[in-house]
Amino acid sequence: MKITRRTALLWGGAAWAAGALPKSARSSPIEANEKVNVAWCGVGNRGPRIIENFEKAGIANFVAFCDVDPENKHINGTKEKFPNARTFQDWRKMLDDMDKDIDAVVVLVPDHSHFPITMAAMAAGKHVYTEKPLARTFQEIDLLMAAAKRHGVATQMGNQGHSGDNHFQFKALKEAGIMDHVTHVDAYMNKGRRWHPWGDLKSMPTGETAPKTMDWDLWHSTTPMHEFSKKFHPGNWRGWYQHGTGCFGDWGAHILDTIHRFLDLGLPEKISATKLIQPNELIYPLESTINFQFPQRGNLPTMDIDWYDGVRNLPPTPDEFKGQKLERNLPGKFIYAGDHVFHGGSHSTTLKSLNKEKEKVIADLGVPTMFGDNSDHYKNFLLACRGDEETRSPFSVSGPLSQMLALGCIAQRLGGELEFDRETRQITNNETANALLKDQPRKGWEQYYEL
Question: In which residue ranges of the chain is CATH 3.40.50.720 found?
Answer without folding.
Answer: 5-162
